[in-house]
């Protein structure tokens, strides 16, 4: 993506909610070379920051609620969480949680767009978000999968002011034209029970090797490595606990 640091309206963080934190740490450490650091404070509930060098790149956390699915969750940066909540509601979205204070790090909101895709809002204070994008092992693209693309486009452009690159095949989201993600229309190939969702893509040096490493680590390959027209080589993977994520070849940003 063409963003290299958290900016208002842009993706700023990816965090995994998992049913087996210890296993997830091992899997992603082997896959991406992450160095996990678990917050020792009892109130943090096992929240773990994944680092590459000194840079925070993602988080791993246990499931905090019984109904919470195993999944990767994406956060978008906002200047004012309360104002963003009002914008989400006015545009037809839902706010099931927040705003919630997270120590001195910032304020956190769980929201959902009108098509059902869940996402998060983050008003950073001492922690603005990821310290590295687009490098191997870090977040480099985000993708919305939805059955109602027009409704989704209306919502996100209203709430965040995103630009949308017109395309029947693959519209792309941007901030002032700096693209950071795309949108896929879910057709009959997607099982009915799969809801609209956001999918993070992490940069890797070699997509094919990442796919092999995923299966060797107990995960699955949902979409085999492929090179779409005018795009980077990509694959969609699933970790051993069931969380889906994508990978793409670093240096081939759209």
UniProtKB/TrEMBL annotation:
This is VOC family protein. Residues 10-124, 138-250 form the VOC domain. The lineage of its organism: Bacteria, Bacillati, Actinomycetota, Actinomycetes, Kitasatosporales. It comes from the Bacteria.
